[in-house]
Amino acid sequence: MVKIDNIELGDFPILLAPMEDVSDPPFRKVCHDNGADLMFTEFISSEGLIRNAAKSVSKLDIFEYERPIGIQIFGSEISSMREAVGIAEKADPDLIDINYGCPVKKVACKGAGAGILLDLPKMIKMTDEIVKSTAVPVTVKTRLGWDEKTKFIVDVAERLQDVGIQAITVHGRTRVQMYKGDADWTLIGEIKNNPRMKIPVFGNGDVDSPQKAFELRKTYGVDGMMIGRAAIGYPWIFNEIKHYLSTGQLMPPPTLKESLHVMEQHLNLSIKWKGMRLGILEMRRHYKNYLKGIPNMKPYRSKLVTSDSYGEIIQVIDDLQERTRLTGYDHIEQHGG
Predict the structure, then answer these.
(1) What is the largest CA-CA distance in the chain?
(2) Per the residue annotation, which of 102, 107, 262, 316 is the catalytic one?
(3) CA 151 to CA 38: how far, in whole Å?
(4) DSSP state for residue 163 in the 8-state scheme
(5) No. of H helices and E strands in the chain?
(6) Residues 6 or more apart from 5 whose CB is under 8 A from it?
(7) Terminal alpha carbon distance of the chain
(8) pLDDT digit string, tens, across residues 8-56
(9) Is 109 assigned a catalytic role?
(10) pTM of the full structure
(11) Buried b (16+ CB within 10 A) or exposed e, 32-49
């Protein structure tokens, strides 16, 4: 049983990664329903929380059905991070997660996210201060290093454990790599196999199929995995991975009818949480993957990503359901490989 503090997560938990503009409550709901064992909010700016910025505060919304769930924060100033944790605590999360991995320029080049990998003493001090400031378990998500010359993550993970974090997730790329090239799990495996490490070690990067998850688990022995981009528009990946790891068999992929049902549910949740206009707009990034593997989807997808009308979008979904009924075609290709 993998545990973070007193939170039991099962024998090999599959986590949903925090993704900006993706990991909102509607998306988390459909992922939780399809097997995600632990989820996190979108990353939240510590400065935004302190200033009571509406966008940052709205990201604190968590719901009972999502538990266990962590609130992820980022920032470059230790005092601000400590204060932000105090604000985040009031939302009653199960965990506080520190983002030391975001590679985007506007974050990393200001010394936050992966930017702190250029100042490891500050990274350790910030973590120490945060752990001491809260009774909520603290975890960390980070990368291998800033670049090829600064991949000190095996030592860094040990030092973070020493100041009190309860789990660590490592993305198998440097900041310089961004999301390019293949994720390298070698150092993630070294962290897990370090005899001094006692906390759970989760791997992240390029987990896009049950078969890939099986190979990475067998090779590197991690305690669990975090899924990010592969879950967008395909929340079934969590249960598919868990089923394959426990049985060695692939689950049948969702039927088109099932996919359309979850897609419509996701749309309705998005509208309920964000309002009609924004809810429709922000669903557009998900449609491509919901319809992936189905032939002749271009005209339908085009309507979905351009329409501002809820009625028109529901009509497209109904048309697809009718097409399924008339043709008998209700099959989606398995994602990943």
Answers:
(1) 64
(2) 102
(3) 27
(4) T
(5) 14, 11
(6) 137, 166
(7) 28
(8) 999 999 999 999 889 999 999 999 999 999 999 999 999 999 998 888 9
(9) no
(10) 0.92
(11) bebbbbbbbbbbbbbbbb
